[in-house]
Structure formats: structure tokens, C-alpha cells
Amino acid sequence: MRHTVPAGMDRKESEVYLRLDPARLPQHIAIIMDGNGRWARRRHMPRVAGHRAGVASVRSTVETAARIGIPALTLYAFSEENWKKRPKSEVDFLMRLLCRYLKAEIKTLNENNVRLQYIGRQHELPESVQREMEEASCATSKNTGMLLTLALNYSARSEIVDAFRSLAEAAARNGGLDHIRVDEQSISDHLYTRGLPDPDLVIRTSGEMRLSNFLLWQLAYAEIYVTQTLWPDFRGVQLLEGIEEYQKRDRRYGGLGKDGHAPQHPSHHGHAGANR
Predict the structure, then answer these.
(1) Per-residue confidence (pLDDT) for residue 174, from 0 to 100
(2) Residue 226 placed within a domain
(3) Does the annotation count 153 as an active-site position?
(4) Which of 13, 65, 255, 266 is the most exposed place for a label (fewest CB within 10 A)?
(5) Is-contact 97 51, C-beta < 8 A?
């Protein structure tokens, strides 16, 4: 039976969506947004122009994910390493851009029933940025649709360090380290992403084949989809293409396929997927 295209989709998005199985959509998609600088350089523009252009990509991606009923979307917006390796002028611009985005997008997020939250060491961000983050989060807190998580001042290794510190502090409050319990569930319960399902699909733009210190614990069994598209050119249709590729994969979590053998899938140029 042919499924119905959600309202608001353009022709190209509709064409890809009709090839999807709505019953097998990923429950959580994570995206490494990469390529802003290269996008600007190819146009002989300053790097900040690429960051500015990337805002439209965020809007399109969030709207499309919400329209098709993706429960959770996490965007890698600003890494902890960005503080150390980017010029101060660029970091300052990114902070101002983030504040403008949060103010401008509240209406769109509410129209799409999207709830906003953050992961990362938020306390290290400028106080003015923290205030805007809190206001945007509160303004969308009553929404019941997709959960949009922005990774800001985020590092997966720092997250794991903070999780173990939290475990130790919890044990100290409960009578000492003799009471500490360390297993996969207890670690997951102390990560920034506690309460979220692990991502089923991670998308990286710009063709780079690395995770860049992003959700290293949570992505253990995620399907990886890499597109050559630079982030400022990424739109809802590219998100749907990534989901289409995801639905071709056989997720075995270390086991065997239905026939008792590891299925062989044809390779897809430009995509990286773990053969489990």
C-alpha cells in the first residue's frame, strides 16, 4: 500500500520518501555537520560565510526529520576542540550565530512540535550564550514531537570522563567506592545522552571518514553514512537519501543474517558502513 507523503515536502523529497519504509525509520539520527569552511573557500568567501549558510541546512534537516516522524535528531554543532584550534574571531562569530539561531528558530521549532536540548560542557560557554540556550529550551519544553539535541562544546572523551566522575561521586554519596557499580548500563545512565536511545544512523557530510570525537560510546553499532555533500548544501532530500541507504543495511549487532550467513551488499560509492 502506497504511503502518504507528509505535508510540506517538495517534489524531490517526496520522490525519495516514497521509496522508504515508514515502519523502519531510524529512531535516532546523529549528524556530523562538516564542510562549512570548504564551501566558503570554493566561493572565495570568508569561512564565516560557510557557517552562516549552514543555518539553512539545519532548518531544512530539522523540519524534514520532524515531518517524517524521526523521534530524535542530534547535531554536532560545536566541539570542545573548536575552542583550541579555531581563531578567536571565528569562535566569537559562531557564538553570535548560535544566539541568533536560537532566537530565530523558536517559532519554527514550535510549529514543528520539536523540543530542544543540549549536550556538552555548557557551563564553559559564555554566560550570554547560556542564557539564550536556556530560553530556547524552555520555549520548546512543552512540545511532544521530535527531540532535537545540539552538541555544543562537546567532546565524547570528556563525556566519558564526566560519566566516570559522576559514577564516583554517586558512590561517595552512597557510602564509598565499595558501592560503585560499573557496567554498560550504569555508564550509559551517567552520559550526557541518558534517556536517549543510541543513534541508529550517523551521517557525516563533506566526505570525511572519521567520527571526530562524537558520541564514541553511543555510536558503537550505528550505521555510518558519508556523503560528499558539504554541509551548507545539505537539505532534507539528502537526509532522506541517507535514510534510504540505512534501510538497505542488514543490522546484525555482531550476529549473523537471517540465513545464517553474513549477507553481502553491493558497495555504494561515497558511503561507509560497518560490515557486522
Answers:
(1) 77
(2) yes
(3) no
(4) 266
(5) yes
